[in-house]
Design goal:
The complex is a heterodimer of chains A (245) and B (441).
Chain A (H helix, E strand, L loop, with lengths): L2 E5 L4 H12 L3 E6 L2 H13 L3 E7 L6 H14 L4 E4 L7 H6 L1 H29 L2 E6 L12 H21 L4 E8 L2 E2 L13 E2 H14 L3 E4 L3 H10 L2 H4 L5
Parallel strand pairs in A: 1-2, 1-4, 2-3, 4-5, 5-6, 6-9, 7-8
Helix pairs in contact in A: 1-2, 1-7, 5-6
Chain B lengths: L21 E2 L18 E4 L15 E4 L6 E5 L4 E5 L4 H8 L4 E2 L11 H6 L7 H4 L8 E5 L5 E5 L4 H7 L8 E8 L1 E2 L4 E9 L2 H12 L4 E6 L11 E8 L13 E2 L11 H13 L5 E7 H5 L5 E2 L10 E8 L6 H13 L6 E6 L14 E9 L3 H16 L3 E2 L9 H7 L3 H4 L10 H6 L4
Parallel strand pairs in B: 1-3, 2-3, 14-16
Antiparallel strand pairs in B: 4-5, 5-9, 6-10, 7-8, 7-9, 11-13, 11-15, 12-13, 12-18, 17-19, 17-20, 18-19
Helix pairs in contact in B: 8-9
The chains are: A alpha/beta (245), B alpha+beta (441).
Bound molecules: flavin-adenine dinucleotide and NADP nicotinamide-adenine-dinucleotide phosphate.
The site of NADP nicotinamide-adenine-dinucleotide phosphate has 26 residues of chain A, from helix 1.
Chain lengths: 245, 441
């Protein structure tokens, strides 16, 4: 796996995955919202052994910009072996409950934008009969909870989309990897008190790298979230609906 | 209202306990600085591997810097690395050892940041040939509360350069660092471990070996008296000249929980020391050792500091000048041994005479001893106060990076250039240690 596009590359988790690919000497095309952060990251990855000489800016809310940045990536790298889609936001649940436009924006960032990228990437890889698409969803998408069900809606919807996409692309030899992290200590969770369940971005980022190399299907990270979510998913709705989660 | 501190911004000794600290966040290390609107002070925090209260700012603000960890550039022709100040030494080793480069100076743990290494102008097992960390940092960036972002070197803003190296984070935030790496041919070292039966033997071996070995350090048993006073193991090494070989897998075991205090009773410690000393039967053992166990034996147990339990522990490190009859160091050893309070991990080393670039740097020519004391309250503090007197009378000094209790007079006597340093302190920066030793808290 040598030529990789990373979308939302400056996210704390994606940075750690990119650093693993840098160690492998990969060629990287980095896409994110902030150009200065992208420049700093590109220098870092180059020192670590990557060739990360191309970057592009996009905003998830501007769906029209997505095709253009992917086009740039195809041109810069010649060919692509894999893509990681990492951007996302944790919207304020209460704000969303009061504002439909805020709700819409969060769904665009967390669901529509990754789907848009996947649409072009899927068609690209399907033609070549090879490739890997990896997307970060979340354990929050496994069951709706009052504290963050808008975030959960987008991540859960995205996981279903990826399931379908995997089903479609498997005959073509293209792997689709769904990453479901638990709590990760990153800028996104800065405002939350940190308990023992929090993993580091490095742990999760390294796991994503491994999953991409192997073309795994669904990965909970750290692994124990698979069991936690299994239990949570199996609590009967008549009990669950009264729980404060 | 100040938030309750999250456990992450404690010091390594977990003493003193922090009442409340607020966390300030910076988007980028180049600023702007998030100056507290309540008029409070800031203190940069690296990986919290300082023992006492030099890396905490109780009742005020902490500025976490370990997240600023991008490399900037590397010149393979000269080994010159530029990186953001939050990059850890562990990361540098990870990336550069496979390419044939090592750190110019390294402490006994690799989990420290570049910023922290400069702020305490740390020393390593090669002080006698390489001096302190700051000597290998030709320049760095410094962000001041005035909003200025200065480049500091021995020629540019040279006074701030000298004040920031060993400046305990008080002169502002170190943003980026230029570091000269050290070329190696192999990640393995040729090592020699020699048993010594007492302090005189230690000094003799040390003198003989310093010319032959780039790295040296000793472990001393602080629990045996009389003829065995100051017995221990002298460990020396040079990087192997044989070309690179693959590293063994690294396995770090987390210390599972806070230990109950009876674990560290004096019987246990004494048995450990005796076992350790006797693990080697012949006087001299030579071998080939990977750099991880040689330099970072404690890093194999993550969070080993938790074994001291909830009360935390003290570390005490001093340096005293060499003297003919070695009377002072022997007296200090006798006092520590008699007190029966010392723990394992007493580390003895000689410093060479290479001057440090920092105004406040700790190392100077002489012999240095670092040891742990479990926190037993008053008697432990009394012992350290007694040791202070002997160290001060001998013209020695004490390392603030490991201190949680030294009185003001000791701090002042340990830093003869304090008056030159003070004018360079940034008015919006402070630390618990600084307020304590200046008696302004
Ligand atoms: C097991 C162990 C072994 C050790 N061995 C040695 C040894 O052999 N030799 C030795 O010298 N020390 C040794 N130490 C001490 C350690 O090297 C120092 O305390 C070091 O400074 C810790 O770095 P840190 O990144 O954790 O910084 P912290 O402990 O978080 O902070 C240390 C100081 O650096 C300042 N600082 C941190 N980042 C910045 C920044 N970006 N800008 C400005 N100031 C900053 C802080 O304000 C504080 O004053 C050892 C410590 C341990 C735990
Ligand atoms: N942290 C967790 O606990 C956790 C748990 C499960 C899943 N995840 C998922 O992991 C992924 C990475 O998040 P992270 O934890 O690494 O947090 P992060 O560092 O805050 O990363 C989030 C990234 O998304 C980008 N982003 C947000 N809105 C955007 C927009 N409108 N346009 C373009 N980019 C936008 C951000 O860009 P800027 O840098 O420019 O702000 C940022 O780089 C996300 O998909 C998140 O949902 C995180």
């Amino acid at each position: 796996m040598k030529r990789i596009v990373i979308i939302g590359a400056t996210s704390a988790i994606a940075v750690e995955t990119a650093r693993e690919f840098a160690k492998d000497g990969a060629a990287l095309f980095l896409i994110a919202r902030n150009q200065r952060a992208l420049d700093d990251l590109a220098s870092d990855l180059n020192v670590r052994g990557a060739s990360a000489n191309h970057t592009a800016c996009f905003d998830a809310l501007d769906i029209a910009s997505h095709e253009r940045v992917l086009e740039q990536a195809f041109q810069a790298l010649g060919e692509i072996d894999a893509a990681l889609i990492a951007h996302g936001e944790l919207p304020d649940q209460e704000h969303c409950q009061r504002s439909v436009s805020r709700t819409q924006d969060s769904l665009t960032t967390n669901l529509v934008s990754p789907i848009a990228f996947c649409t072009w990437l899927a068609n690209y890889f399907e033609k070549r009969n090879v490739g890997n698409i990896t997307v970060i969803t979340s354990v929050a998408g496994d069951r709706g909870r009052q504290s963050n069900y808008l975030y959960g809606t987008a991540k859960g919807g995205l996981a279903i989309f990826l399931q379908g996409l995997r089903n479609r692309l498997t005959p073509a030899g293209v792997t689709v990897t769904t990453i479901k992290p638990g709590f990760v200590d990153t800028p996104m969770t800065r405002h939350l008190p940190k308990g023992p369940l929090f993993a580091s971005a490095e742990t999760v980022g390294k796991r994503i790298h491994k999953a991409m190399l192997r073309g795994e299907a669904v990965v909970y990270t750290p692994f124990f979230w698979r069991f936690i979510m299994l239990i949570i998913q199996h609590i009967p709705e008549c009990v669950f609906r009264r729980m404060k989660l | 209202m100040p938030k309750k501190i999250s456990a992450r911004y404690q010091s390594w000794g977990r003493y003193p306990q922090i009442r409340n600290e607020q966390i300030a966040h910076m988007e980028r290390i180049t600023g702007p600085l998030p100056l507290p609107s309540d008029g409070g002070t800031l203190l940069a925090h690296g990986l919290g591997r300082s023992y006492g209260d030099s890396c905490v700012n109780d009742t005020q603000w902490i500025l976490p810097c370990a997240g600023f960890n991008n490399f900037i550039s590397f010149d393979a022709a000269t080994g010159t690395l530029r990186a953001e100040a939050g990059v850890s030494l562990a990361t540098i080793l990870d990336v550069f050892v496979p390419r044939g480069w090592f750190l110019p100076v390294t402490p006994g743990t690799k989990f420290v940041t570049l910023g922290g290494a400069i702020a305490n102008d740390i020393h390593g097992k090669n002080h006698h040939v390489a001096g302190t960390f700051g000597r290998h940092v030709p320049q760095f960036g410094l962000l001041r509360s005035s909003g200025e972002h200065l480049t500091c070197s021995s020629t540019e803003n040279s006074a701030l350069y000298a004040a920031t190296i060993g400046g305990m984070g008080l002169t502002g935030v170190i943003t980026w660092v230029e570091l000269k790496l050290h070329p190696i041919r192999s990640p393995y070292l040729n090592t020699r471990t020699t048993k010594f039966r007492n302090l005189d033997e230690f000094f003799d071996i040390s003198q003989e070996s310093d010319a032959e070995f780039e790295y040296s350090v000793s472990w001393v048993d602080c629990t045996s008296e009389g003829n065995n006073l100051g017995r221990g193991l002298f460990m020396a090494g040079n990087f192997s000249e044989r070309s690179r070989s693959k590293a063994p897998a690294e396995l770090a075991i987390p210390f599972p929980c806070q230990a109950p205090s009876y674990l560290l009773n004096s019987f246990f410690i004494r048995s450990f020391n005796t076992l350790y000393y006797n693990k080697q039967i012949s006087r001299v053992v030579e071998g080939l050792t990977h750099y991880n166990p040689f330099f970072y034996p404690l890093d194999a147990i993550l969070n080993w500091n938790r074994m001291y339990g909830a009360r935390g522990f003290f570390q005490y490190q001093f340096v005293v000048p060499f003297e003919q009859d070695r009377g002072i160091i022997k007296e200090i050893f006798a006092r520590i041994t008699r007190s029966k309070r010392a723990s394992f991990l007493a580390v003895l080393k000689t410093f060479g005479d290479i001057p440090s670039p920092g105004l406040m740097s700790f190392p100077r020519k002489g012999v240095t001893l670092a040891l742990d004391f479990p926190n037993d309250g008053e008697p432990t503090l009394r012992l350290m106060n007694e040791l202070d007197k002997v160290v001060m009378d001998a013209g020695g000094n004490i390392y603030p990076a490991k201190d949680a209790r030294m009185p003001s007079y000791v701090f002042r006597a340990s830093h003869p250039r304090l008056h030159q340093f003070i004018p360079h302190i940034d008015p919006r920066f402070s630390s618990s240690l600084w307020r304590r030793v200046m008696e302004t808290a």
